[in-house]
Write a structure and sequence with these properties.
Layout lengths: L5 E5 L6 H13 L4 E4 L9 H11 L4 E4 L2 E2 L5 H14 L4 E6 L4 H7 L6 H18 L4 E5 L4 E6 L12 E5 L2 H10 L2 E4 L10 H4 L4 H15 L7 E5 L2 E4 L3 H12 L3 H6 L3 E4 L1 H15 L1 E7 L3 H11 L3
Parallel strand pairs: 1-2, 1-13, 2-3, 3-5, 4-5, 5-8, 8-9, 9-10, 10-13, 11-12
Antiparallel strand pairs: 6-7
Helix pairs in contact: 1-2, 2-3, 3-5, 5-6, 6-8, 11-12
């Protein structure tokens, strides 16, 4: 059985506190499920503080990072900060965690950029530590990357057994981990290049997404149907002339228009056409949790109104 649609909004910053609160309230009023903040060292708000303020300004809007870079914080710190946010938001937190991918973050901060296998293994340990600390029981853990000795995590999150965990990626190793450990799997382009460019764009085709969803379902086994599959979009245009808009995007990225039209990162057309596209993609890929960006928030709202919860 397909999961019902819900929609997230990703944004990085605002002109100030009043504007940030206004956008959060607008997202809530327009029916968006969740406000997400990324986690990079460039020009954006710090996610944990920004999410706390967004939660304080709203009453039903869920909040989460998409996603916290695992290498940037120790899991004991992450567990405490996120549990606090879940308590103070009344149980509205979604926990996004990633292995780290943007080369410029590592170069600018001096944090060592280990090979992908090491970063993913370290993230797997983090997930184990964080969820154990949310159990209310003393935790002792000895892994290749973290050691915890007799620590009881406090406070305990409101949500049981813990807030929903989002893990995403575009490679088989990380998507297999997500399938086994997460509640929500973000199926993304491959970010192995370390920066958004032609290599990333080339992995946004529908066929690449078919392959990634197959990896997830294989690794998930019996729990595959329980997973909520999330898709982060990058090209969203609510327009009357779908063909012309797609042709323009295809020219910009040197793609065949048919490839752009089928790509899960693109949503182009009238409200009715986008609704039909999302319904078809849920049937094909299983995507029910769709994330757009602030620039599209108001134009995309009729799609949210038509599909959220269905």
């Amino acid at each position: 059985m397909a999961h019902p649609f819900r929609f997230g909004l990703q944004l990085s910053s605002a002109a100030g506190a009043a504007e940030w609160r206004r956008v959060a309230r607008d997202a809530e009023a327009l029916g968006y499920s969740t406000l997400f903040v990324p986690d990079h060292f460039d020009d954006q708000f710090g996610p944990l503080v920004a999410l706390t303020v967004a939660a304080e300004a709203t009453s039903t809007l869920r909040v989460g990072a998409l996603v916290l870079g695992n290498d940037y914080r120790h899991p004991v710190v992450v567990a405490k900060e996120l549990a606090t946010l879940d308590v103070l938001s009344g149980g509205r937190l979604e926990v996004g965690l990633g292995a780290g991918w943007m080369t410029s973050d590592y170069e600018a901060s001096g944090i060592v950029l280990d090979p992908p296998a090491t970063r993913i293994a370290r993230m797997a340990e983090s997930l184990e530590v964080i969820t154990a600390l949310w159990s209310g029981e003393p935790v002792t853990f000895s892994g290749a990357h973290y050691r915890i000795t007799g620590l009881t995590g406090t406070p305990r999150p409101v949500q049981r057994p813990h807030p929903p965990i989002i893990v995403g990626g575009g490679g088989r190793r990380v998507l297999s981990l997500a399938a086994r450990c997460a509640d929500i799997v973000g199926v993304n382009p491959s970010l192995a290049a370390g920066a958004v460019g032609p290599e990333v764009v080339a992995t946004t085709t529908a066929e690449h997404y078919d392959e990634r969803v197959a990896w997830v379902r294989e690794a998930a086994g019996d729990r595959a149907d329980e997973l909520e599959l999330q898709c982060l979009t990058f090209l969203v245009q609510v327009v009357d002339d779908r063909e012309a808009a797609i042709a323009g995007l295809a020219e910009l990225f040197s793609f065949d228009p048919a490839v752009v039209a089928r790509s899960p990162v693109a949503l182009v057309g009238t409200v009715e056409e986008i609704v039909a596209t999302l319904e078809e993609r849920r049937r094909r890929f299983g995507f029910s949790y769709v994330v757009v960006h602030e620039a599209e928030m108001e134009a995309f709202a009729p799609v949210v109104a038509a599909l959220a919860g269905t």
